[in-house]
UniProtKB/TrEMBL annotation:
Protein name from the UniProt record: N-acetylneuraminate (7)9-O-acetyltransferase
Principal location class: Golgi
Protein's organism: Caloenas nicobarica (Nicobar pigeon)
Annotated gene: Casd1
Keyword Transmembrane helix: yes
InterPro entries reported in the protein's UniProt record: Cas1_AcylTrans_dom, NXPE4_C
Transmembrane parts of this sequence: 269-291, 355-375, 395-416, 446-466, 473-495, 507-526, 561-579, 599-617, 659-680, 692-711, 731-750
EC code(s) of this entry: 2.3.1.45
Record's catalysed reaction(s): CMP-N-acetyl-beta-neuraminate + acetyl-CoA = CMP-N-acetyl-7-O-acetyl-beta-neuraminate + CoA; a ganglioside GD3 (d18:1(4E)) + acetyl-CoA = a ganglioside Ac-O-7-GD3(d18:1(4E)) + CoA; CMP-N-acetyl-beta-neuraminate + acetyl-CoA = CMP-N-acetyl-9-O-acetyl-beta-neuraminate + CoA
Length: 756
């Protein structure tokens, strides 16, 4: 379903989400702040021409520029407005009837070198109906007058944006006696006449007068709340003004969450090169596949008639099979990236705004929890945080985060605070997992580091190229990447302290604790020294990775939000492994982790702590204040969950294979949602099937999950090729990767220069 002309949809169709949120058909509407409105309309002249209902729209529009404006002045006269700071002029001209006077005013802008308004909004009819008591002669005269005005409007439309506002319906039961002749039947007749004349006039004209008909739809839903049955309630007028602002300003300001009226962004040089690369990969793979198929036919095993022995086909060389795997992976990736681009960069599929309701968040949560419990299996091992359990943990957290994003639940503070704990839990696992590996295995080799970095960053680097987005845009991957390098540096620098060495001398344990204390001190210093943090990450080429909108503030904010939780994960791993080594915990199947008494006490404390945090998070009133406390207290709920999940032997011995399956592709799910499940860089929702919200979510979710799973397979395949175990081969590959990033930086600099 092609998106089509989103401007036309914005002006003509849509529906209400809830009571006040207007959703245009097929596209997203940005909510403009007064500063954004001023930036868009600087040095502009806007004119509203018409009756009292157009005057209401005029006031709602100028309140987007200056919210302090009061509705006062001569109701049946012209009203000027000027914002001197931005040189914006907005005028309301009182012409309640479409007549000679209105025609003369419009004609004056078409003659000579008179400055023409940049935006003109015209509309009138109810006064004609009222003054002439709804007579047919008045309608005939109305048609004649519009016919004479239409060519002038078309002429103005060549250099200005001209909108004809159709008449909104009235609530007949509430109309005063003097307005009883204004019926919806009469209004429909006047609107039909205006549309027919304007459309017939525009067929032969190069420029077109845009018909502002969406106000009719809005009024049909809200006119019952009118104070007099004729004029719209304030919320509806504000919606109409916001639509006008989106129609004009979206192509200028290009807001991420305002897809209506935005042209498709042009392909960058890097995107063109990526397209060529993937095209060549697809062609190369097809050629190799054809060659192999022909060779297979020639060497097809057959029975030797003389000896009766079967001849074996020739075995392909390893180089060819590696090349084929490489091209096969890039071939699939190219097709997947095409889908990404079509979903979130081309104006092919529709996009809609999010709208939060409690049911849209909590019902899916209950549904997936029931599914997860249904797929319960025994674990292969019963250790604390074993592989199946951590995959399960990642899986259900990722599903909850996905539901949180698509439902727009960030507007509900208690849910937001609990989701922040889930993000912290991911980072806790990063600290726990990587510390455990380095501490137990003592493997600080380049191969391990490159494997982890490749698996974490491959998809994001490809998306940065294809979707023309900065690395920091996918904030979670930079976060886990930097924390992995911090963990590696902490344990790898002299003296390298690992479990094997520490078992020989207990003093090494104190040495490791000293390292962790130093790490905590550095984290504490950087979290309260924004200047020092920004200096570190403002050096080129680091700045290219961590800047967003020209500065690293967003990166500092994201890092600071969960600054202690990785340290907590490392410390927990150290304590747990120390207790395990000294056999102070029981990890047998069905056995409680500690003695019954200690286990019961710890379980009680954990349940109370878990509940206390939830109560505190649910009572949050201010997001900023709660975010300040979050880094210090999030670990309470994380540790409480770990103890509740692991102390009882039976609970530790089972896991949900449903959640674990999603946990294995959790990183891909988190990243892919940006473009092929959500839309407009997570600000909206992708609409593949318009008009059927539930069916659309099912279809887009199925494709999204399949794509994430496929990308996970591609990443694993490429990791074996790009990051080999042989050190000399690995060094060559690293030089190639360095060359690739050097080229990327060069082309990126060229792009930035051409944009400026």
């Amino acid at each position: 379903f092609k998106g089509g002309d989103t401007c036309e949809y914005l002006l003509s169709s849509g529906r209400f989400l809830g009571e006040k949120v207007w959703q245009p058909h097929s596209c997203m509407m940005h909510k403009y702040k007064n500063s954004e409105a001023k930036n868009c309309l600087v040095d502009k002249h806007i004119v509203f021409i018409g009756d009292s209902r157009i005057r209401q729209l005029f006031y709602s529009f100028i309140k987007l520029i200056n919210p302090q404006v009061k509705e006062e002045g001569n109701k049946h006269g012209n009203i000027p407005f000027e914002d001197k700071s931005s040189s914006i002029k907005v005028d309301f001209l009182w012409y309640p009837e479409v007549n000679g006077s209105m025609r003369q005013r419009i004609k004056s802008w078409t003659e000579g070198s008179v400055a023409k308004p940049h935006i003109i909004v015209v509309g009138a009819a109810t006064w004609s109906i009222k003054i002439h008591n709804g007579s047919n002669e008045a309608l005939t005269q109305y048609k004649i007058n519009i016919t004479s005005i239409a060519p002038l409007l078309e002429k103005l439309a060549k250099s200005s944006d001209v909108y004809w506002a159709l008449q909104d319906p009235v609530y007949e039961d509430m109309l005063s006696e003097s307005r009883k002749m204004i019926t919806n039947e009469k209004i429909d007749a006047y609107n039909e006449a205006a549309i027919r004349i304007l459309n017939s006039s525009s067929r032969n004209a190069k420029a077109k007068v845009k018909v502002f008909s969406v106000s009719k739809l809005i009024a049909q839903e809200t006119i019952m709340k009118s104070a007099d049955g004729l004029h719209l309630p304030e919320s509806s007028r504000d919606t109409n003004a916001m639509i006008l602002m989106n129609v004009y300003c979206n192509k200028i300001m290009k807001p991420i969450d305002g897809s209506c009226c935005q042209p498709q962004p042009p392909l960058t040089l890097i995107q063109k090169l990526a397209f060529c690369f993937f095209t060549l990969s697809i062609i190369g793979y097809l050629i190799i596949s054809l060659i192999h198929r022909n060779n297979f036919r020639k060497n097809k095993s057959c029975t030797d008639l003389e000896s009766g022995e079967e001849k074996k086909p020739a075995i392909g060389t390893p180089n060819v099979s590696t090349l084929e795997m490489l091209l096969h992976s890039f071939c699939k990736l190219g097709l997947i990236m095409t889908y990404f681009y079509l979903c979130d960069r081309a104006n092919l599929f529709m996009k809609e705004n999010k709208f939060y309701t409690h049911s849209s968040f909590f019902i899916p949560i209950v549904y997936i929890l029931v599914l997860g419990v249904f797929y319960t299996e025994n674990t292969k091992e019963t250790k604390v945080l074993n592989r199946e359990q951590t995959d399960e943990w990642k899986g259900w957290m990722q599903l909850v985060i996905l539901i949180y994003h698509i439902s727009g639940a960030s507007t509900f503070l208690p849910v937001y605070m609990h989701i922040r704990v889930l993000v912290a839990a991911y980072l806790f696992q990063t600290g726990y997992g990587h510390f455990s590996y380095f501490w137990v295995k003592g493997d600080f080799g380049v191969y391990r580091v490159c494997q982890v970095l490749f698996r974490l960053n491959f998809l994001v680097v490809v998306l940065c190229v294809v979707m023309d987005r900065p690395y920091q845009f996918y904030y979670f991957v930079p976060l886990v990447t930097v924390w992995f390098m911090i963990i590696y540096a902490t344990l790898a620098i002299w003296p390298q302290i690992v479990q094997k060495k520490a078992n020989g001398n207990c003093l090494w344990h104190f040495g490791l604790l000293l390292k962790l204390i130093c790490l905590l001190a550095c984290v504490y210093f950087l979290s309260y020294s924004q200047g020092a943090f920004e200096k570190i990450f403002s050096f080129w080429p680091l700045s290219k990775c961590f800047e967003l909108n020209g500065n690293v503030y967003e990166w500092w904010f994201r890092w600071k939000l969960d600054r202690y939780v990785v340290f907590h994960g490392m410390l927990f791993a150290f304590i747990y492994l120390a207790l395990q080594k000294r056999q102070m915990i029981s990890e047998g199947k069905g056995d409680p982790l500690f003695s019954n008494r200690v286990s019961n006490v710890l379980l009680f404390i954990s349940v109370v702590s878990f509940s206390t945090y939830s109560i505190w998070a649910s009572s949050c009133k201010n997001k900023t204040e709660c975010n300040e406390l979050h880094p210090s207290v999030s670990v309470v709920q994380i540790l409480a969950f770990i103890l509740i999940r692991n102390i009882p032997g039976y609970v530790r011995s089972v896991y949900s294979s449903f959640f674990a399956w999603f946990g294995k592709i959790s990183l891909e799910l988190f990243i892919c949602q940006y473009h092929i499940w959500l839309a407009a860089d997570t600000k909206g929702i992708l609409v593949l099937i318009p008009g059927y919200p539930m069916f659309n979510v099912l279809v887009s979710t199925f494709i999204f999950v399949c794509v994430a799973h496929e990308i996970s397979q591609i990443t694993n395949d490429l990791a074996q090729i790009v990051v080999p175990k042989d050190n000399s081969t690995l060094l060559k590959r690293l030089l190639c990767i360095a060359g690739f990033f050097s080229g990327l930086l060069f082309f990126s600099a060229m792009q930035d220069q051409s944009r400026h």
